[in-house]
Each structure stands twice: as C-alpha cells, then as structure tokens.
C-alpha cells in the first residue's frame, strides 16, 4: 500500500471521515431494537472478535509496563465512550452527536497542556474557548440559556471526547514504541471479554419481539466491524505514517457526513446548529493551526 504517499493519506482521511460520520446514523438504527447498553456491548464485542487474530499474534509484544496504558486505550479510549455515545443518542439526533464529536482535538490539546506539559500557543487557547462556546450552544439546543435547559445526554458526548483526549495523550506518551495495529489489537483484547460478560447479563427477549431486529443488528455489525475495528486500524496507521496533526484533521470532515446522514434520515438541522458547528470547527482549526508536540485526535 502507498502509506507514504500524500494522495493516499488524503484518501484514507476521507474514508475515515465517511466511516465515522456514518457511525452516528448506524447507532440510531441499532437503537430501534436494542437498548443503548446492548448496542454498545455488541459493537465492542464484534470489534474485539474481528481483531482477535491480530491480538493473539501480537501478544508477544505485550509487556507488563504497557498493560496500564493499553487498558486506558481499550476502556477509556473505546469501551466507555461507546456506551456514552449510544446512551446519548437515545435523546439527541445523530447529526448533533457528530457535531459535538468535533470537540475531541480541543480536549486532547487541553489535557496535553495540563497533564503532559504540551507546548502551546495563545492562538490555540483562543480555539479552545471558541470551540467550547459552540459546544455550549449545541448542548442547550436553542433554548434559553439556563442550567435546567442543558441536555444532559449531550454532555455524555462531551465526556466521551474528554476520554478520547486522555486516551490519545496516553498513547503518545507511553505507547509510541508500538505500531497502530499492535496498540489497537492488544487494547481490544482486554475489552472483548468485558463486553461479552456484560451482554450475558442483559435481556434480549424484548429485542427478539421486534420484527426488524435482524436489520438493526446488521447496522451494529457494520458499526463494530467497520466503524470501530477497521477505522481504528486505519487511524492509528495514518498517525504513524503521516503525523498526528494531519490525522486529527479528520475531525473537520466528520460532522459534514454526520449532518448529511441526519438530513437524509429526516432530522431537523437549524441555523443555530450550523452556527454552533461552525464555532466548533473554527475552534478546532485554531487549536491545530500550529504543530504541537504530543497532540492528536481520535473520533467515535
């Protein structure tokens, strides 16, 4: 493959944006028959099963000193956010979820500055502020600004982006000696059993009573295999062969696909939503405008 070619890296960037931008609508479809917890569990289990051959192959690279960081990559970087996103989408539109996901690089930089002594420019601080203002507008969903009007389910996605920031900084500082495939497969090696155990405790009888559950299950299959396992392998490889900053620019494009699918599915997109999304994207742009060490981004 042509990983060292700029044109190939750009195609991978667009492919990732399409995959992750489509993940939100796949979650919405899966939630028509499955509970939010079941949808997240199935997503993580399928991703782990697909990666299992790589996990077994790469066990020889597993060192005791890396276990903590791999657990963070698996649970903070993927497992818990998967549950947060599906829970959030029981109450908010998939397009809005895609917009809020653009906060990931902003929190990645903020956590890098606070916990990893990442060098920064004041322009990036300005980006942080603008991005958070945009997120606040989306969270309040056009209502009068008051604490009682804050959509708590939207806050779940904000929390997920914070977890993404923690995860990426951990990978950059502690796991740089491993390849993207090794990190991904070994991290999911730990999350697979947890997902299986959790799913075994849930009740699937209501699901089987839904006449269209096989179709909704196929959406979760696509979400787990393509939107999680494949996408993570592509993202980690892109970071390795290009740069973390270049790879993070996928966040600029994801909301476009998320909004596109939302409109196709009949969701309402208001001027306020678009304005707030523009604020978030401007904040992301300013945050990543100058190269900052130890910073990158990871979406849904």
Detailed description of the structure:
By secondary structure, this protein is mainly alpha-helical. It has one domain (6-287). The protein has 13 helices and no strands. The protein has helices at 6-30, 36-57, 67-88, 94-100, 104-116, 122-139, 152-174, 180-200, 205-208, 213-241, 244-248, 250-264, 271-287. Residues 142-149 and 292-300 have low confidence and may be disordered.
Comma- or semicolon-separated keywords:
mainly alpha; single chain; 0% strand; 300 residues; disordered C terminus
Short description:
With 300 residues, the chain is mainly alpha-helical.
Q: Give the assembly state of these chains.
A: single chain
Largest sheet: none
Query: What is the terminal-to-terminal distance?
Result: 25 Å
Mean pLDDT: 83
The share of residues in helices is over 70%
Which stretches of 5+ consecutive residues score pLDDT under 50? Answer: 142-149, 292-300
Percent of residues in beta strands: under 5%
Protein name: EamA domain-containing protein
Subcellular location: Cell membrane
GO cellular component, one term: plasma membrane
Membrane topology: Multi-pass membrane protein
């Amino acid at each position: 493959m042509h990983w060292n070619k700029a044109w190939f890296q750009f195609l991978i960037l667009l492919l990732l944006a399409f995959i992750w931008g489509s993940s939100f609508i796949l979650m919405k479809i899966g939630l028509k028959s499955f509970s939010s917890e079941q949808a997240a569990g199935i997503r993580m289990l399928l991703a782990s099963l697909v990666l299992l051959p790589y996990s077994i192959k790469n066990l020889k690279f597993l060192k005791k000193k890396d276990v903590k960081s791999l657990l963070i990559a698996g649970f903070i970087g993927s497992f818990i956010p998967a549950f947060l996103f599906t829970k959030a989408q029981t109450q908010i539109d998939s397009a809005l979820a895609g917009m809020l996901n653009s906060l990931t690089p902003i929190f990645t930089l903020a956590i890098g500055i606070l916990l990893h002594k990442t060098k920064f420019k004041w322009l990036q601080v300005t980006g942080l502020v603008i991005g958070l203002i945009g997120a606040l507008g989306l969270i309040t969903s056009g209502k009068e600004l008051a604490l009682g009007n804050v959509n708590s389910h939207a806050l779940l996605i904000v929390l997920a982006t914070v977890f993404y920031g923690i995860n990426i900084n951990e990978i950059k500082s502690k796991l740089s000696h491993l390849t993207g495939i090794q990190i991904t497969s070994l991290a999911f090696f730990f999350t697979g059993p947890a997902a299986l155990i959790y799913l075994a405790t849930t009740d699937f009888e209501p699901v089987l009573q839904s006449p269209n559950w096989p179709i909704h299950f196929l959406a979760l299959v696509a979400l787990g295999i393509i939107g999680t396992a494949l996408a993570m392998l592509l993202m980690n490889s892109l970071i390795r062969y290009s740069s973390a900053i270049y790879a993070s620019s996928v966040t600029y494009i994801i909301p476009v696909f998320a909004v596109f699918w939302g409109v196709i599915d009949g969701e309402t997109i208001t001027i306020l939503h678009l304005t707030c999304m523009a604020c978030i994207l401007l904040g992301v742009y300013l945050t990543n405008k100058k190269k900052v060490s130890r910073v990158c981004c990871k979406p849904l």
